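S.,

Sequence below, as promised.
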Amino acid sequence: MRRLWHGALFALGITVLAIPARADAPVWREDATRMLRDSTLNLPWANSLGDWVDAKGTPMGAVPFASTEVAKGGPPVAVEIDVTALVRAHGADFRINTVGGFAKLASREATEGQPELRVTRGGRTTILKASADTEMNTTTYKALGDRPTLLTQYGVYMHFDQPADPGISRALLVLNAIKRFGGASRFLVFRPAALSAPATVAPGATYEPERPERLRGDPRTVGALKRPSPVVRPTGGVRTIVSIDGARLKRLPNNRPVAAAMEAWFEGDKKTAISDFVTVPGAHTEAFLTVVLKLGNDWTAPGGKLPGLANTGQSGSHICIVRGQPMGPGGWGGRSANACHWSARTIFRGVRSGETGSGTYFYALSPNDVNGVADFWSQPLPKGRWVAYVERVKLNDPGRANGEIGYWLIDRQTAPGGKAVQGAGGIIWRDTDQPQSAINELWADVYCGGHDCGAAPWPRSTIFLRRLTVTDGLPDMGAVQSELDALNAAR
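The prediction came back faster than expected:
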């Protein structure tokens, strides 16, 4: 097999090297699964089995950047695809689909016949080896990027460290098809993408999903929630219900006020940096929480909770009686939600050098899991600079599965002016219309745990909270961005 790939190349005087080049990091990682494009940070695909855009820029479109035909059956064959146009414009990041039959390819972990990209520029051809590859597969939720073969049946992702370069005269992708299944195959090449799951609809639009089934299996399974959820646009006249600057949060041994912010940390065996309840006055069935925060550059905590809206009954709210039965506190720490009590905190889980995976973590009547339901944002939370997230909770009407949750991230570098990063509907938060079941708590919680904090003692992980503000509508995202710009300029 090695002669098939390299023998003729040396005869032609082609350089066989794996020369590193600067290229944009792909939106997917080699630990991607059928549901997650990045298992470390829990970043979801918008579509099961992965996202892409086609040559016309259409999400999940059918027009490939490049394609080739391969006959059915027979011995191993080198599949050659001219990807020049794609590499010139976007770099060497590929989503490969097959139509008709499918093939088993040698992966970059194979002992021979690994994927190659032959790049010609200025009369010289350089051969690059794949820096990452993996397959999508409906039969498992596990990552398959460490195997020596790749099945093309449900799609393959492949990345080479070659940036976009209009000066390239030719880029040829060469794959070793070890085995072919079914009839003749057509290999189609698209560009991987991180598509946004939440849909945007005009204010006032209706959304009436079917009653969701009880969540089964791993609560991290993306797709347990009904999608899409409406993402509300600003309509003007937004009113502040309650606002608190970080310095006014409850003092614990491992936090302290600094200017108008609270500095808090995990260290040693201390899991709780902040746990405070701020009363949300009124009987609101929809509210928006804005949290202005900065994760320290030392942040290495692998998993835990951040602030969110709630009604757990912990903050001394009036007893709620449903069908003659008093409803005790519920909706956190393995305590099931009940007809009145629920919670919708924010979660962090998984960390890389400059970012951490984030999402919603809630207890509701449905979807339901004994340890809460986690659903992750389409974008990670960065470290080392002031950013903000906005959480929206819309309670359901009793007897209807029309509750919702959604998040926006505001960050000059990755989501300037605000970007919808999570949205879901079909949630049953409560089963009564009493005021005691409304949004009445801002749970200012910074907690390491519920998943894994590692073996104690652990090093310090620092967070700064500037303000937490609850409004009755989506805040002015431009004003929040300006606030963040000022904070980051002053550091």
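The longest strand covers residues 170-192.

Coffee later?
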